[in-house]
Amino acid sequence: MGAGECAVSRFDSVKALVFDVFGTVVDWREGIARDAAPVLAQLGRQDIDPRAFADAWRRRYQPAMEECRSGRRPWTRLDVLHRENLDGVLQDHGIDPAQLGEAALDDLNRAWHRLDPWPEAVAGLTRLKRRFIIAPLSNGNIALMTNMAKRAGIPWDAVLGAEVVQAYKPQPEAYTRTAEVLGIRRDELCLVAAHNGDLKAARAAGLATAFVPRPTEHGPGQATDVAPSEAWDAVGRDFQDLAAKLGC
User: Which fold has domain 3-27+116-245?
Assistant: First the structure.
């Protein structure tokens, strides 16, 4: 039996695919840079590369969630954390957030709601939806996931957000409570992600795993997550290839 056949047989019992979103489904770096560029220009800060600004904002993502994961802070929606992180990254660049005003800050923060999918993502998800329930398993909140899907035409069967599980990946509860919410066993749920660490945590929680690389998520010089680090249950070049391998 070949590797493709093994993957298909493992998925005979899988009922739902849930997806990491930032980086796996959508290109956060280009989307944030697109929305940041006119704001930085308005501030007269053409010296700041919008993609570098996006990277700096994203670097605050994990530390902010770790405050919640560790219990040092109550669970807090990602929109709130992103907004606090935006103030911090502006200040890091010598910009007083008050220069923009609350309305402009809130609009820029909602750039995370307006991210574009990778070119084949919607078509691939549409194929996968024929056989499986599909939904996000993201650290993003429900409003963020809903607005993103509505704008981009992402065909989720259900819109789940971190409010549902009250946990941030890679906490085990983020994975196990998602299976509970969908009314299925853990081994009937598969996480699809471009991040090996996310998949490792999902596997430890009892989920099936599928890796799809996004080798330019962090730009052209990306050195992480360009290939699978373990023998995941399925590996696809992109969502279309994954759909073909899973018989969709």
Answer: Rossmann fold (3.40.50)
